[in-house]
Specification:
Blueprint: H1 5-12, H2 22-33, E1 60-64, E2 72-76, E3 91-97, H3 99-106, E4 119-121, E5 135-138, H4 142-145, E6 147-148, E7 155-157, E8 161-162, E9 183-186, E10 188-190, E11 201-202, H5 206-210, H6 223-243, H7 248-260, H8 280-284, H9 289-296, H10 301-307, E12 309-310, E13 314-318, E14 326-330, E15 339-348, E16 355-357, E17 359-362, E18 365-368, E19 374-377, E20 385-386, E21 393-396, E22 405-406, E23 413-417, H11 434-439, E24 445-451, E25 462-463, H12 467-486, H13 488-492, H14 497-502, E26 524-529, H15 538-543, H16 547-554, E27 558-569, E28 572-583, E29 586-598, E30 603-607, E31 624-625
Parallel strand pairs: 6-11, 20-31, 22-25
Antiparallel strand pairs: 1-2, 1-12, 3-5, 3-9, 4-5, 7-10, 8-9, 13-14, 15-21, 15-24, 16-19, 17-18, 20-21, 23-24, 26-27, 26-30, 27-28, 28-29
This protein binds 2-acetamido-2-deoxy-beta-D-glucopyranose (4 copies).
One 2-acetamido-2-deoxy-beta-D-glucopyranose binds near residues 407, 409, 410, 470 and 473.
């Protein structure tokens, strides 16, 4: 997806003559933008639709994006109404914790990490407390595989849901805990009506584009609308002049000179036009720029079926394997040989990049230190595919595939390299070295998962992760039993934030209750939902008991907070808290806000950095193994990595 935007821009920016036309451009711009106040939201609600007859039930497709050079995209296979969930259970999200600090210890050379182009900032997903510095979030499916076109974005993504099903798992008795991400069910919702064949666009946020210099002419939320106004002003200008006898060809020439062939350096409004399209002027007489872009981001279902792979054959749910967390299940009957999922991959050519080191305090800050020894590996490792003779890891970012668990005897799908006609796989890379893979920082490899036999709707999907994985798992179980025996007391006494959050009824302790002795374990902190700061909207939802739904769709970041008072109001416990918000002018200062009578939902326990189960030194870590016969000779750079 994103690196590819570069190419889109190159296309758009394929400027011809550089003409300095500032005076006229200025006239046109000021005319059209004087009514800025009229632009409330840049996105029109008009629906653009191609006639379509879905031949399968598939609601989500992965296929080449309509944005030139943007690689893979996601498409609607049927109509969705505004507010519809696009998947009934959201995807897993995987925290990547302080990776730059750890990776610098591992190898101080120039930092490149392809995942950086595909991750989300942890704060808005309420996962930043896991690390001491910078936590990023890998969010497969809509979070990573869908492209972003802010002017016509149509998919809203919620925060991951707290993983309540696992509240009963505990580190003193469950060897699987710490081996999978505790964050998931990140739901995607139709932001507006979406018709079959339209490409899905999520919002990466304006900041994502603003911080990438190569994207300085990519239109943001309101720029399509502004460009459309610019066009209409231009038309008006021409019409005035036409009465005085200016012919249509001259109007076209004016447009070409001042808009289409303009260098438009740094203008997102001029960047909103397709400068390589000589017919755009004619088309814009008949429809708005927004409608045109929607139409251009729509493919026929026949095209999508020919060039894509269904992206919702799988759905997630609690696995039948007790220690595996969630699993993937067939959402419909899948006959033998069906491509159950397309598996686009992000490569990490040196798996040592996922090493994490023990922490030490240096100049009052926590820092990883290689000399103190290895702490473990990022939890991301467990979601990536690798091979014993190579340092390469290939990590999937397509919908739902990260939920698939291992079982050699029950395996009902197998792996193969993807069909290059569908999506984003370049088979010639299988013959090149890993260094070459790295010189070109975009995702260009993909697997697909194929049904080994008929799979019934609702059956859990299993893949054989390979013999080395299975041996490592059994080795883990034995070692784990011994370690737990040796540390039974401290393990048994451990209480996670997850357990505390699962108890929704008990009255919480205030700061005053805790003066004599703390009532909560030292490994948790109390935070408050920023959503409840200066905002009473929740009261309407409290009235009909739907605060949880309100939170799910509006969740913001968490702020440090202190509980000052508890009262019972109309039979409900209500809390008075002090929320501490970083001062926008000085990050090191906190502004205190007193908020009265908040519901329990406003308060969350979080684990302190490096204390949650994924940091257990005895948590399982192993990559999924790629079958030997599939793995290219050219990538076998580390014959001795395995003991
Ligand atoms: C795979 O499934 C079989 C049959 O249910 C079970 O006995 C076995 O323990 C499973 N293997 C793993 C590694 O979970
Ligand atoms: C990078 O990959 C693209 C195809 O995706 C190819 O056209 C281009 O030549 C490659 N660039 C380099 C430097 O290898
Ligand atoms: C764990 O709890 C038990 C019983 O409550 C107590 O005797 C023991 O000292 C505690 N251990 C630790 C390490 O806190
Ligand atoms: C509950 O109230 C909110 C706010 O008035 C409203 O938007 C929502 O639809 C209501 N939900 C139910 C289930 O009644």
């Amino acid at each position: 997806m994103m690196p590819s935007f570069k190419m889109w821009i190159t296309l758009v920016a394929g400027a011809f003559a550089i003409i300095h036309a500032s005076s006229i451009e200025y006239t046109v711009l000021t005319r059209s933008l004087a009514q800025d106040a009229l632009i409330e939201e840049g996105i029109s609600e008009e629906i653009v639709s191609l006639p379509s007859n879905p031949s399968t039930e598939c609601g989500i497709w992965l296929a080449p994006s309509t944005i030139p050079g943007a690689g893979l995209g996601m498409y609607a296979g049927r109509d969705f109404r505004k507010g519809d969930l696009l998947q009934e259970y959201g995807d897993v999200v995987i925290p990547i914790i302080d990776i730059e600090s750890h990776a610098r210890e591992y190898s101080p050379e120039k930092w490149n990490f392809l995942w950086d182009e595909y991750t989300w900032d942890a704060e808005s997903l309420q996962m930043d407390h896991e690390g001491f510095g910078h936590v990023n979030v890998a969010s497969p499916g809509f979070g990573a595989a869908a492209n972003s076109f802010l002017g016509i974005f149509n998919v809203e993504e919620y925060s991951p849901m707290p993983y309540d099903e696992t509240a009963s798992l505990h580190r003193s008795k469950d060897p699987g805990l710490g081996g999978f991400s505790m964050y998931g069910n990140r739901l995607s919702v139709a932001k507006r009506d979406i018709s079959a064949g339209q490409e899905f666009f999520v919002s990466y946020g304006e900041n994502w584009f603003e911080t990438r210099p190569q994207m300085k002419t990519v239109p943001l939320f309101k720029d399509l609308k502004r460009a459309n106004q610019l066009f209409r002003s231009f038309r008006k200008l021409i019409q005035v002049d036409k009465e005085q006898g200016i012919p249509e060809e001259m109007a076209k020439e004016l447009w070409d000179v001042f808009i289409r062939n303009n260098k438009f350096d740094g203008s997102r409004i001029l960047g909103a036009f397709h400068h390589d399209d000589p017919n755009e002027l004619e088309i814009l007489k008949k429809m708005s720029l927004q409608s045109l872009r929607k139409l251009q981001s729509t493919r026929s279902l026949e095209w999508i079926e020919e060039h894509g792979t269904c992206g919702d054959h799988l759905k997630a749910g609690p696995s039948e394997l007790a220690q595996a967390g969630r699993g993937a299940f067939a959402s419909r009957f899948l006959p033998v040989d069906t491509v159950v999922a397309h598996v686009p991959l992000i490569h990490i050519s040196d798996r040592g990049r996922l090493n994490m080191y023990q922490l030490e305090t240096r100049s009052k800050q926590l820092r990883p230190s290689r000399s103190k020894g290895l702490l473990g590996q990022q939890i991301l490792l467990n979601y990536c595919y690798g091979h014993g003779e190579s340092t390469l890891l290939l990590c999937p970012y397509g919908p739902m595939v990260n939920y698939i668990n291992h079982n050699a005897t029950k395996a009902n799908v197998r792996l193969r390299w993807a069909d290059p006609q569908r999506g984003n796989h370049m088979p010639e890379l299988l013959e090149r070295s890993l260094e070459e893979l790295d010189t070109n920082a975009t995702a260009k490899l993909a697997f697909e998962l194929v049904a080994l036999r008929d799979i019934q709707a609702g059956e859990e999907i299993y893949l054989d992760y390979g013999e080395e994985w299975e041996q490592a798992w059994h080795g883990h179980l034995v070692k784990w039993q011994q370690q737990v025996k040796d540390h039974r007391d401290d393990l048994g006494n451990y209480t996670s934030a997850r357990q505390l959050n699962a108890d929704k009824r008990s009255r919480l302790y205030t700061e005053f209750d805790q003066i004599e002795s703390p009532r909560y374990p030292a490994n948790v902190e109390i935070k408050c939902e920023k959503l409840f700061l200066d905002n009473d909207d929740w009261e309407e939802f409290a009235a009909n008991n739907t605060i949880d739904d309100y939170l799910r769709s509006h969740r913001d970041e968490l702020l440090p907070c202190e509980i000052m008072r508890v009262e019972r109001i109309d039979g409900q416990l209500r809390y008075t808290v002090v929320m501490k918000e970083p001062d926008p002018d000085d990050d090191s200062l906190l502004i205190n806000h007193l908020e009265e009578h908040l519901p329990r939902q406003a308060i969350r326990f979080v684990d302190k950095p490096y204390t949650s189960d994924i940091f257990l030194t005895n948590a399982f870590r192993h990559d999924i193994r790629i079958p030997n016969e599939m793995f290219p000779q050219a990538w076998r750079n580390a014959i001795q990595t395995e003991r």
